[in-house]
Amino acid sequence: MAHGGRGRRTSGPAVTRHRLTVMNNLEKLVASAQQNPGVTLEQDFYCTPEIYELELTRIISRLWMMVGHVSRIPEPGQYFLYEIGQESIIIIRESETVINAYHNVYRDPCHIQVFEGLIFINLSEDEPPDLETLYGSYHDFAEQQGLARAKIANMKSYPTRANWKLVIENFFECYHCAPSHPEYSAVHDRLKILARGAGKGTGPEAAEREFTPVFEQWETESRAMGHLTGVYPGGNEETGDVRASRTFIQKGFQSETMDGKPACKVLMGNYRGFDGGVTVFVFNPMSIVQATNDFAVMTQFTPRGVLDTDITFTWLVDEKAQEGVDYDPEDITFFWDVTTRQDKTITENNQAGVLSGVYRPGPYSIQEANLSRLKTWYLQRISVN
């Protein structure tokens, strides 16, 4: 554990003038962006260090960031580090029932809560809203999935040379899925990708009309098995428009694997069989869980610098599943590993394009409706002191 004192802030007339210039420019950029909701953000939002520093204070520090699963530190005294921005946070199990978080440079505690086995921290100086208040509606899905009774099967990190907003924008749209993700497009129903690739309302109306009866038939079959389906809204003004929901992979597929067969022989949670469903928990744009009947994937997007973002995937299986007997970690990770490596390349290429001297904001497509909503959420947060 590192030790040290609080650093002293640089101050003076020059610093004050620079800050005022940045703030004045930001106000103009935000006003311009708000007047053009149907196009991407201006270049400065994706590469300006001063704006990035404000984002850490005004947006990221106020979010409950998912940092891990309780099974990573099962014994008292065990810990792991979570790096965000320039901060290093120690997550430590103090006792059988207590997990705490501290800044690594001085023993100053951070806000920490555990929700259904998922560990969240909040770096706000103020008292943040309780996770139960934000996501209590997610409990039924979380219990069905057995998130609190899971264990880690594998973990992988994908350091990405791109601004965090480009990273999450790529994740929250599926306009690029068909041409860029052959494995994803082979596993998931193609009509679903077109109609609801990034959720309901993110595709052409004609595709939605065609897909709706197919989806409703799956819901009927899933409920007949005793499984929950539907949508459970959650969150608040800080988290944005978030929810937990269920959809299906494609007809005949039991899991997110290339052949559609289960990746783990042991079902998670309270599932009575394979219904081919996918449960998605969106806690905020930086913290998502996606889960099939046999495994779950924790997805963490963590800003590390203005042009650096860590993408961390943690695969979970039921605590009773035995590695080498019930599952192979590589079989479980293949689908999202290959998809995320492709996304890393796409996003880094996008960042290179944004840095070009000829970059100009462009219009969102119908299948990028989520990005327009993300933009609104972001602008509301960054413009509030």
SSE diagram, text form:
Elements: H1 13-35, H2 49-58, E1 65-69, E2 79-84, E3 87-93, E4 99-103, E5 111-115, E6 118-122, H3 131-135, H4 139-145, E7 150-160, H5 164-171, H6 177-180, H7 182-187, H8 190-196, H9 205-224, E8 231-234, E9 242-248, E10 277-284, E11 287-291, E12 296-305, E13 308-318, H10 329-354, H11 369-382
Features:
disordered N terminus; Naphthalene 1,2-dioxygenase Alpha Subunit, Chain A, domain 1; 385 residues; 3-stranded antiparallel beta sheet; 13 strands; alpha+beta; 34% helix
What does this structure look like?
- By secondary structure, the chain is α+β, with helices and mostly antiparallel strands.
- It has a domain of 240 residues: Naphthalene 1,2-dioxygenase Alpha Subunit, Chain A, domain 1.
- The protein is built from eleven helices and 13 strands.
- A seven-stranded antiparallel β-sheet has the order 7-13-12-11-10-9-8. The chain has a three-stranded antiparallel β-sheet with strand order 1-6-5, with no helix packed on it.
- The longest helix is centred in the C-terminal third of the chain and has 26 residues.
- The radius of gyration is 21 Å and the shape is globular.
- The two termini are 33 Å apart.
- The N terminus is likely disordered.
